[in-house]
Amino acid sequence: MSNVDSFGAKGVLDVNGAEYEIYRLNKVEGSENLPYSLKVLLENLLRTEDGANVTKEQIQALADWDPSAQPNTEIQFTPARVIMQDFTGVPCVVDLATMREAIKDLGGDPKRVNPLAPAELVIDHSVQIDAFGTADAIERNMEIEYERNGERYQFLRWGQGAFDDFKVVPPGMGIVHQVNIEYLARTVMTREVDGVNRAYPDSCVGTDSHTTMVNGLGVLGWGVGGIEAEAAMLGQPVSMLIPRVVGFKLTGEIPAGATATDVVLTITEMLRDHGVVGKFVEFYGDGVSSVPLANRATIGNMSPEFGSTAAMFPIDEVTLDYLRLTGRSEENIALVEAYTKEQGLWHDPSREIKFSEYLELDLSTVVPSISGPKRPQDRIELTEAKEQFRKDIHNYAAGDEDALSVGRPSKAVDVKMADGRQFELDHGAVSIASITSCTNTSNPSVMMAAGVLARNAAAKGLKAKPWVKTSIAPGSKVVTDYYEKSGLIPSLEELGFFIVGYGCTTCIGNSGPLESEISDAINEHDLSVTSVLSGNRNFEGRINPDVKMNYLASPPLVIAYALAGSMDFDFENQPLGTDADGNDVFLQDIWPDPTEVQEIIDNSIDTEMFTSSYSTIFDGDERWQALDTPEGDTFAWDAESTYVRRPPYFEGMTLETVPVTDIEGARVLAKLGDSVTTDHISPAGSFKSDSPAGKYLLENGVDRKDFNSYGSRRGNHEVMIRGTFANIRLRNQLLDGVEGGYTRDFTQEGGPQSTIYDAAMNYQEAGTPLVVLAGKEYGSGSSRDWAAKGTKLLGVRAVIAESYERIHRSNLIGMGVLPLQFPEGESADTLGLSGEETFSVTGVTELNEGRTPATVKVKAEAADGKVTEFDAVLRIDTPGEADYYRNGGILQYVLRQLATK
């Protein structure tokens, strides 16, 4: 649809003689009073107004935003670009590749299937720390990474060559969000539209929750599931409610002993406590201008940990300085400044902006902190860390005798290593100390502080304890460059902190195995050991299967805990060791002086580091270049592949839409309670040999040791369907007291217990459609595309829930599954539904007439003939969603649009 300009906002901006078409915000009354983040949304709507999906009324509603109102106006946001990592990106590219074949089958040109918005994928989630503590660790880990993932990488390399506007950053280059702020982010985008150069705010959605890191650069963006990302790539808008915006005022400056990590852990605790789920957070006030860009990025990165959609900083001189440092062109920097000043997007601390809610932090009150043992918001002041550990350990090591009279449960175990090391392991031992994750490795102030602390510790003769698995995994090669230039690498290596790879590693659970003797001792004696990492997530079971308690800390504190060797440690009163003269050495004796750290940063980091690292970012190393890469407009699928397979979404698809039908004779696949999350539905993590996914791989000749994870096999729908609803904590109320991916199979006499996958296949063979019954907040948590894809491929036609999390509801429609809601105040239980009934849903066919009914009729018939009827609310909320459902899903809708152009 062509653009409508109801407000006469289209105009021209001249920047040093270059002319850009822009949509002026000052043409819309009320825009000047909006928070920064909502101004970005307003410009987006002005630019994409088409009278149907984006209307004059929506634009006016945003300009008239009432800070105190609850969100109720739906708008369509069209992000400027899409950014992906490899776990979530592979299925997106699989779908695009499948669409190319489908359009060919429909008589169209495969080359028409291309991202319409720039899409970039960074391979950063697959490197694991198998080797550590040696100079060749990085090479060894890269070798193993390619052995494990070569097939996926070949496929992505094909995609890079086959699709326009799609680029892949090969393995070993950095972490997606650090690469985004240091190189990919445009801050202000330019694009040629109908022969005219248009400028508009950079914005992005990403297939990773920490996409919000780019908020630190003044770029609006957040994490979405793969379905929304694919839709955005193909030019479809993201549906959202105009959010509440929380104003967070920053004042004062960080004190000498504290770091950016301590600031972000403090903010995380404050915002979690306040409650910001579904809201935007925006930082304002005089203190903003004294927050370095790297600190802003660290804060933005943790937005999912507070629960907010985005955590925005406005654009100012600090932003421009960072763009200059990282090698952005002078033309781009001039445009950013001119455009943001013209549009009222430049930070003006004197301007009083109205927010929905207010918080304030005086940075000078921040103290050194860690978070743990299982949530990012559980902040502990460092001075209280030992005492808090002694309270928390009782939750992990109850009943152990305190044989050593140390004031806590204790179980000292002698460990003898094959190389002759001998030591005692006890509860609280630090088994992993990892400087990891873009949250902190993008921040020179904390990375350099870690290097200086290592130098000071090495000079005093201190060493990491022999049971600690030590590692550094920077988010970009620039970190290594400035470590080398500052001369700090030898000191880090002396303490065991060798660079092991460039990727997410420990933060996403790719910490690699502990040494076998240590692992055996932990499991044999049920020791509660700990990990310390400079990451953003420390949930139970995430970091390493042997480690029960996980703590987030700044990079210098990660090293300090490696020296201490235990979480049961008081840095103020216990020495880390002794120097050559036998004097005690305390943490305060080696703690870096912030003035010196800043001097080293000033002398060690320059623009050339960024320009040289990023000039070859898409080239990859010799391994990448040596990959045997298929060519052609369509992908040559390998029938034997267990990683990348063609999904069946478009089989039998015709150019004309097929009328939607009512649902008859459906059975219940699962009856679920409240707060069933996408983690319960979507496959994640490792899986066992006796699970449907494990059996499938064994049948296809894959050894147990080569299973890898669900995440790495997301490009194979056969593995993923078998893991849908298979979470070990899922409770299906069709069964009593059973947890896991099980149901009753009513194709068999008496409905015996079966795995959800096997039952679904039997229903499919019998031609029986399926429904899922659920409680409140169905599909909350991360937006996982496979929660909807797996539901569809299992044969589920409709979900009937008490209420939905917004993104999962739209994802179900995007896959052609009907989201229905019980009448207000009713539920499966109040209606007396056991889940053993046969269901029908009528009134769906009204959608064929171009109408979207408010309700549809649901009828449930029990075996004894008892019939229960109710009007379910049809949760198709926008005209665009109705189009998607009529087409059988969002991808089918886009495909038909492309094929008929």
Automatic annotation (TrEMBL):
Residues 70-565 form the Aconitase/3-isopropylmalate dehydratase large subunit alpha/beta/alpha domain. It catalyses: citrate = D-threo-isocitrate. GO terms for molecular function: aconitate hydratase activity. Keywords: 4Fe-4S, Iron, Iron-sulfur, Lyase, Metal-binding. Pfam families: Aconitase (PF00330), Aconitase_C (PF00694). Its EC number is 4.2.1.3. Signal peptide: none annotated. Residues 695-824 form the Aconitase A/isopropylmalate dehydratase small subunit swivel domain. It comes from the Bacteria. PROSITE patterns: ACONITASE_1 (PS00450), ACONITASE_2 (PS01244). Its cofactor is [4Fe-4S] cluster. Belongs to the aconitase/IPM isomerase family. Catalyzes the isomerization of citrate to isocitrate via cis-aconitate. This is Aconitate hydratase. It comes from Micrococcoides hystricis. The gene is acnA.
